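Hi C.,

You asked whether I'd gotten around to modeling the 951-residue construct. I have! Everything is below, sequence then structure, no commentary in between.
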Amino acid sequence: MGKTRLVRAVCDHAASNGAAVLWGRGIRFGAVDAPYVAMIGALEGWLESAEPSERAGALAAVPAAAELLPSLGGQPTRGTVRLLPVIDGLLQALTSQRPAVLVVDDVQWADLASRDAITYLVAGFRSQRLAVLTTYRDEEVAAGDPLNVWLADLIRLPSVSSLRLARMGRDETEQQLALLLGSQPDPDLVAAVMGRSEGNPYFTELLVEGLTAADQSLPADLPDELAGALLAAWHRLDAPSREVVRLLAVCGRPASVDDLVEVAAARGIGAETVTVALVAATKNGICVAHGAELCWFRHPLLAEVLNATFVPGEAVPIHTAWARALESRTATAIDELRRFGELARHYEGAHRPAASLAASLRAADLAKQLKALAEEAVHLRRAVRLWPTVHAADAQPPDRELDLLERLASVSDLVGDGEETHAAWSRSLQLVDERRDPLRASRIVREAALSEWWSGRRSSQPFEALEQAVRLAEPFPDSTEYAAALAELSVGHNWADSFEAARLYADEATRAAQRSGSPEALARAYRALAEAYERDERADAASAEALRHARLTGHPGRMLLARWARMAYLAPRRRLTDIVQLDADGLRETLDEGATNVAAFHAGDLARHLLLLGRHTEADQAVREGLTLAGDATMRAVARLAAVLLAVRRGDLDQARSHVRRLHELIPNLEHRAGLWAPPTLAEHLLAENRPDQALELLADTMVIQMSRARVADEMVMLSARAAADLADQARDRRDRDGVTRAQQSLEDIVERRRKLEPPPFARITNDDLITPAVEALHAAETARCLGQRGTSTLWAETANRCAGAGMRWDEAVASHRWAQALLTDGASRAAIAVPLRSAYRLADEMSAGPLRHEMEKLATIARISLDEPHPATVDKHDDAPEVFRSLTRREREILAHLVSGRTYAEIAAALFISEKTVSAHVSNLLRKTGTSSRRDVAALASRLGYPPPH
């Protein structure tokens, strides 16, 4: 009737047809969610029921499964994000043997790692025989719950659909009651149930539990609100059992019977009463067993409802009892982390804020040791909240609280909690005393300002705050803070195109950092130096030093900025393969550290560069991983922009539109954010949507803003030419001369705007920069198309060759397509047109670029050219060739292969370096030997016989 029963019915049907069913469920824990609980539960359940051969085959295919599954001795305590491929591998191993259905029931309670795993699996769907079903109750998801963001992102992925179980009407409720009660219910009972349940099948089931079809009404004491419906079954227990169930609710997580007995004893309740209560609660559908030792509520929301039944102060001694039970336990690794997290929650509930603070800090330290940054952030947040209460009477300076706030801000930044980062820095600014501790004040002012800029809370560089940070640290010229403030001020000026000031501050920052000897100061200073001298070869050594010192700090955020500096050196020199390797290394390392916010950036940046190289399959994997990672809006936007580009090039415009909508939800002013590469991506999307006028307008409006990175502006100029050319072509088709003139004038205005900015358009730094000339050639060729110039085939040929030399396979395909179009317009032979056309088609096919491939198929039809490449002929006379072809010579077999592929005499002659006359002579021999009358007949005969065989 409800979501779970519906899914169970589906799974029963699938199982009856040979599918494996893996059932996991979300569980509401206390302060900390253990990673992959839902996924581990599903896999463990399958392992218990699987046939020995099936189980052995899957485990043999994924040896790392032992690191994940408790039944195999595993305990995922480190690098939990890296266990995603283990889960994926196990499911692939299983589905290679038979179809499977993976269920995660009550996903609203699932831990974040399990949700990430679901996204990882769904985003990578190709041809697996796997169905993933998740269920959740929307009434249990409050506004602002992270689940809403997760659901919004998931529903936009391909192959994902949602089924809302709408409230039942009267007739449907009557049918449900007939099934539950065994016969047709009394109409008055139906009306009463409808009034209370409002058509919710779950509440209906609870409301009529224990009733018969003869009953005409619901019990008078049953409440008519959600909480009352949830408490209905609980109210039917006797008083001692109700109290035991409330004790379990205070626990906040599945509890062992032994622990529950200990807590109950502290409340004067005996062990026998606990046993009786659990049996009664289970029979009444209130509690369910979790494994052999744990028990919890069938519907986790009931725990919250029961907690709400305590009057103020009533639950304090119960929290105290649970805390004592936990104090007597010992554990290791993640279990010890969870124990201290639960202790902190129960201490707080017991009105012992000092003990709760101490437990929170201990849990945070354990989480740090386990590289569980998300869990560390959870406990630091509680500690920050409790600190003012515990230390309200302290007469000492707030140094320790500031230490805590700075730590929380740093960790929150790494896991992508932008609001918490901002709040921590804001509180720090209120507490810090510039006169007493100027160095700390310098650091906080600097980091708070940079956080505001990175998060988009301010659109301009925070020069005033950075200059204040420099002034505060200036009396300490050998300090880390002075070097760091100078370095960040240099970077700010570099972004604002104040290159001379950027170099002055970078030079001084480097000298200060060298005096300090601090790895952090040196990493920041060398990063500033590399970016300030980006067009100078000094940036090579400086960026390498920045990365070396950043690694010494061990801080993922420092390493990101250092890699950024290295990329700033490599990018103008267009060393794309080196950049791809940097991003791939960064993605792997930050995932191992649990720094999902930094990892999200690396995944998106990696995907963008792979797309530039035409490595779309690898880009797809990077996009898939990036979309599953938690992060703040800025970092998530990097991955989603790459997703837009990939979807556009594959022709999935619905998906691209979905990603664009989500991007504007994340960052409303996305086009005006520097450093995200947004305008070129959004412009390419608009061009794919056949909206060149809007693309042109977007590029014109954002050109100046994006000049902090000249290579972005150069790509925007090139895309402006493409948009203007598309617009002009449309106007020509309509015989609209004024429209053509407007398109050309718009392009001229954008180019003139770009010429006024520094550095000049398409400026090369080194002779080994092959990409800038390729982008410039694309711009020149698109400009010629906009102007309607004739005889541009040579121009497009040069452009295609430059793109090929730079490794820009996507742009090579686009240019080759235009080259073929120009040749057709120029009246070139089919043999000449076929060369670039087939090359572009092959590239588009390799990249799964559906729209581009379709355009070339249309052009091939117009030009009457076959896009099939000829299969190599079999030349061994003693092969398995059909009898009719065994007398053919080697050359005749080669020519037959070309005929099968539909090539003309001219094309065959060009491919084999012989004359058309010689081709004609060989064809005559082919016809004579095979007894056919024309080249079409012999080609058709060969095709029917499957000869020559493809290699």
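If it helps when you're writing up: The chain is about 65% helix and 5% strand.

Thanks,
B.
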